[in-house]
Write a structure and sequence with these properties.
The protein is of the alpha+beta class. It is built from 9 helices and 18 strands. It has helices at residues 28-39, 69-73, 108-116, 139-144, 183-194, 219-223, 227-231, 251-258, 315-322, and strands at residues 16-22, 44-46, 55-62, 77-85, 87-89, 98-101, 120-124, 133-134, 137-138, 154-167, 170-177, 198-208, 211-212, 246-249, 263-264, 284-291, 296-304, 307-313. The strands form 4 sheets. Strands 1, 2, 3, 4, 7, 10, 11, 12 and 13 form a 9-stranded mixed β-sheet that branches. Strand 16 and strand 17 form a beta hairpin. The protein is globular and about 70 Å long. The mean pLDDT is 87.
Length: 323
């Protein structure tokens, strides 16, 4: 006899940003699926993967916020990491097989001197155990098959690199780096500079762009909450855009903007475009745009050559403008 199907739980149109403190052992996609299920959200996405072995900040976007997730993919990241000196592994972290052991004969002064060499623009060779693709296949698949393929070095930028503590053979540091930086490769390279090798044993992401772990919440905590308290954990969509200058439009200009029309900055009241003045010739500034009467976020635009050009629009704002 055919079992009756359970009724599907309706999903909600939900807009906002969740600052998730991801635990160790969980992939970014698994964390997203669990959070989406908890919020009964129709649409959700994450802003760049965080390895299962790493913990920390994983911003999740719901609904209209997913339109702006690319901005966080390109943003600088901050991590606190612990490397173990004297041991090199096949993966550059604690999951790999030990390839080599060496004596550790360093002190804090030598470690500090080594860190100086890695501040600013540096070249990194992506690790074999990474999701970068070669001929359509992730590098880690080649690595698991025992193959090593040639990888071109990539330019990345280490904006800050600070020693937090050293209880040898373990060294803890904080790094703020550009998109595409591999912290375990950084740990390996620092170990090589010290002459003893190293691998990563702990990694925690504490910042993505302007977002930090302040007010971040774990999945376990979310599961214990009532739905109202859970929804209160969501930050507004413009939490992703806090570094952009803001422009406020009147009702007529807001309607034209939501229709995708370009607006001449000279035609707008100066007090509404104050963050952009004076604009240098040829300047290209991304701005968040609001409707002045109710403070609703309308989207993101580029202010270039004296024109406000819509880039990404908020559908819910356009819908409310028509009603």
């Amino acid at each position: 006899m055919k079992q009756p199907q359970r009724p599907r739980i309706p999903r909600r149109a939900l807009d906002g940003v969740l600052l998730l403190d991801k635990g160790i052992g969980l992939s970014s996609n698994d964390a997203l699926i669990r959070a989406k299920r908890l919020f009964l959200a129709q649409k959700a996405g994450h802003t760049g993967t965080l390895d299962p072995l790493a913990s920390g900040l994983l911003p999740l976007c719901f609904g209209e916020a997913t339109k702006f997730s690319q901005d966080l993919l390109d943003a600088d990241k901050t991590y606190e990491a612990t490397m173990r000196l004297g041991i090199r592994t096949s993966t550059g972290d604690a999951e790999g097989e030990v390839l080599e052991t060496r004596p550790v004969e360093v002190d804090s002064a030598r470690i500090e001197a080594a860190l100086v060499r890695f501040r600013g623009p540096i070249s990194q060779v992506p690790p074999m155990y990474s999701a970068l693709k070669r001929d359509g296949k992730p590098l880690y698949e080649y690595a698991r098959a025992g193959q090593v393929v040639e990888r071109a070095a990539r330019e990345v930028t280490i904006h800050a690199l600070d020693l937090l503590g050293a209880v040898l053979p373990d060294v803890t540091f904080r790094v703020t780096c550009s998109k595409g930086t591999y912290v375990r490769t950084l740990a390996e390279d620092i170990g090589a500079a010290l002459g003893c090798g190293a691998h990563l044993v702990a990694l925690r992401r504490t910042g993505v762009g302007a977002l930090t772990l302040d007010h971040a919440v774990t999945l376990d905590a979310l599961e214990q909450m009532e739905s109202g308290a859970r929804d209160a954990c969501l930050r507004p969509v413009d939490a992703l855009l806090s570094t952009f200058p803001s422009v406020s439009l009147g009702p007529i200009e807001a309607k034209r903007f939501l229709q995708g029309q370009r607006l001449r900055l000279a035609d707008l009241p100066p007090e509404r475009t104050a963050p952009l003045a004076p604009q240098a010739p040829g300047a290209d500034t991304r701005v968040r745009v609001y409707r002045g009467e109710d403070g609703a976020l309308l989207g993101v635009a580029r202010a270039e050559h004296g024109v406000l050009a819509p880039e990404r629009l908020i559908v819910t704002a356009a819908t409310s403008a028509q009603t």
